[in-house]
Amino acid sequence: SLIGFWEVKEVQVGQKQGDLSLVQVPKILHAASLLQLTGLVSLQSGTEKRDLFFEGGRIVFVESNSSDHYFGSFLVKNQVINEQQLADALQDAHHSNLRIGDALVRLRMVKADQLFPLLQNHAKTIIYDGMRFNTGTYFITFDEKPAEDQAILRLTTSSMVYHGVKKVYDESQLRNMYPDLALKPERVPKGSSPQS
After folding, report:
1. 17, 23, 37, 189: which could form a disulfide with 54 (CB 3.0–4.6 Å)?
2. In whole angstroms, what is the distance from residue 192 CA to residue 50 CA?
C-alpha cells in the first residue's frame, strides 16, 4: 500500500492535502519516489515549512523558511567559512547581484568544484530536518517546478529516506512506524543457511 498517499483531501485541482500526524514524512517521500512524482511536496508544521520539489521521483530542489537553513548559516555552522567571510560574501552578492554561492566562489572562499556538493549537503540537512515533522499538514502539488534559475540537485529519494530515518528516528519510533520490520537480525548458526 502506498500509505493512503493519494487518499488525502483534494484541496484544488492538481493539489492534495494530508495530516502529518497520520503519515510520517519518510513514507510520503517514499511514495513520491515510487510514483515518480513530478511536483512539490510541501511540509508545514506550525510556522515551519519545507518545500521539496520532485522530478520523476527524485528530489531536485528544496527550500526552508527557517533562517537556520540559510545557505550561509549552514556553511558557518559546518566551519566552511566564518562569520566575517559570510558578511563579506553577502555584501558582494548584494552589490554584484549574485547568489551567495557564486559570491563565495568569486571571492575564493569556496572552490568552484566544492559548491555543488555543499549545496547537496545543505539540501540534505533541510530534508532530514523536515523528517522530524510529526504534526501539521502536507500538500502535494502536481507538476510544480522550482524556479528556472535554481541549482537542480537530483538527489536519490530512497537514499534520503534511508539516511534520514537513521538520523531522525530511534528504534522504538521505527517499530511504531514499521511494526513488521525486523530491526535486529537473527543469528544464523555457522554452516546453515537463512530461512526464506
Report:
1. 37
2. 48
**Confidence (pLDDT) at 115:** 94
Buried b (16+ CB within 10 A) or exposed e, 63-79: bbeeeebebbebbbeee
Which residue, 101, 108, 116, is CA-closest to 70?
Answer: 101
Residue with cell 517521500: 29
Q: CA separation (Å) from 166 to 44, 48, 135, 185?
A: 22, 22, 20, 16
Residue the block writes with cell 511494526: 179
Whole-Å CA distances, 97 to 28, 61, 64, 100, 122:
37, 21, 22, 9, 22
Residue 49 binned pLDDT confidence (cut-offs 50, 70, 90): very high
**High-pLDDT (> 70) share of the chain, %:** 84
- Mean pLDDT in residue range 165-171: 84
Q: DSSP 3-state assignment of 90?
A: helix
With bands split at pLDDT 50, 70 and 90, how would you rate the model's confidence at 21? very high
Looking at residue 172, its pLDDT comes to 81
Contact 61, 53 (CB under 8 A): yes
Give DSSP secondary structure letters for 112-131.
HHHHHHHHHHHHHHHHHHHT
Closest CA to 142 of 41, 9, 30, 23: 41
